[in-house]
Amino acid sequence: TMLFAVLAIAGLGALAAGIFSNAERGWTSLLLNHFFFMSLALGGLFICAIQYATNAMWSAPVRRLAESFSAYLPVVLLGFLAIAFAGVPHLFSWAHPEHVKGDLILEHKASYLNVTFFIIRNLVAIALWFFFRAKLVGNSVAQDKDGDIVHTNRNKVLAPMFLVVFALSFTMSAIDLLMSLDPHWFSTMFNVYAFAGLFTSSLAMMTIFTIVLLRNGMLKDIVND
User: Fold this and answer.
1) pLDDT tens per residue, range 9-67
2) CB 125, CB 169: distance < 8 Å
3) For residues 122 and 176, is the Cβ–Cβ distance under 8 A?
4) Residue 172 contacts residue 123 (beta carbons within 8 Å)
5) How far from each other are the two terminal CA atoms of the chain, in whole angstroms?
């Protein structure tokens, strides 16, 4: 715990130094890291939701690992608040009225690409992620205590709902945080690319965690070779 605290402090110091020396580059680094680790947190919930939606049983020994990724969501909230209230002017050209005025593309997108709506819709998305995390993981943990199948049945209902919310909210987030960095460019495949990164990265981290814990004996007789 002490090591993690030291690394966190060092990271915050490096971020502050980066922003101070070159604000645009510093905030860009934070944005990309924010999106990557946010994707891992959501990827864990996505993997869990798939298991419940398809009634899969094979994943039970490692599903808790995927659930644990969502514990990063509070940091996602803090990261977004920092970006929204301090980083936006350094990241997004559409946040500057003088850049929008006279630019037909930006003027056309102004009803969507404006700071107020940007903050509101992303906070709503994060709130929904918190809600489904509390329910899906909460039911899973509760089942550890009483073994009642009702918790699994509740997650089977919640999982398809989350998958719909996830598809819409993550698509929006990828457009807002990454694609809108260049508001004159757009792609119908960009969000497929972003989702592919989320899914493969989450599977990779889940695999690494499983192997490490297995070698340390913490998953002995739970996960086989």
Assistant:
1) 999 999 999 999 999 999 999 999 999 999 999 999 999 999 999 999 888 888 999 99
2) yes
3) yes
4) no
5) 30
